[in-house]
Amino acid sequence: MDATARSGEPPASPSAPADTVAGQADGVAGRVGETSQTLDRGLRLLHLVADASGGLTVTEAANRLGIGRAAVYRLVGPLTGHGMLRRDGDGRLRLGAGLLHLARRAQPLLAEGALPALRRLAEQAGATAHLTVVEGGEGVALAVVEPSWTSFHVAYRAGARHPLDRGAAGRAILAGRAGVAEPVSSSGELQAGAYGVAAPVLGVPGLEASVGVVALAPLDVDTIGPQVLAAATAITTALA
Q1: Which of 15, 130, 153, 180 has a CA positioned 20 to 30 A from the CA of residue 236?
Q2: Terminus-to-terminus CA distance in the chain, angstroms?
Q3: Where are the strands (E) in 98-178, listed by range?
Q4: Which helix (H) or strand (E) covers residue 196, if one does?
């Protein structure tokens, strides 16, 4: 009686050839690579549509992504199904309401991360501090902190919207797009008698924002500017 029979164990199966195992591994790696490429293309498509105020046709999207129309249609299907994209009456691709849902979930986390820096800035400057983000092509005050020790200060409401080309907060965001991190000042652009200083928040992927202060009296940019820049750096560190 052989050893296998005595132990009650079944005969050992022959080992798979090394080239078969290597082929299976290559196949798995290939599928992972294809999935990563598809995910990358889908995210790039969302960014392209977000940057196109009038939407994009499938042909335009294909040309900008450097892929065929059929590949774009394969991306559009699941993105539309999840509400990330939609087709308007002319068939152009536009952002879907699903992205707004994700953005609303993310906004409280952004505000929470920025609050410590905003509190320090408000107390240092003796002015109302705010974090402004881009939403729908406008600036939106996401978080606002008022100073605790001043007799009078600007009451600035979170959720207030304004054009990006007016006011220190919006113009700081536009400066950030151009890679300029210097403080921006304004006087009476959004509200008569209000003065602002702001700087862009740079280095947080996917976020266009600025941090600044607004006051009822002129602000010394040489003094307030470094404080605003320090707050922008602190927010970048907290959110990046």
Answers
A1: 153
A2: 69
A3: 128-135, 138-145, 161-163
A4: strand 195-201
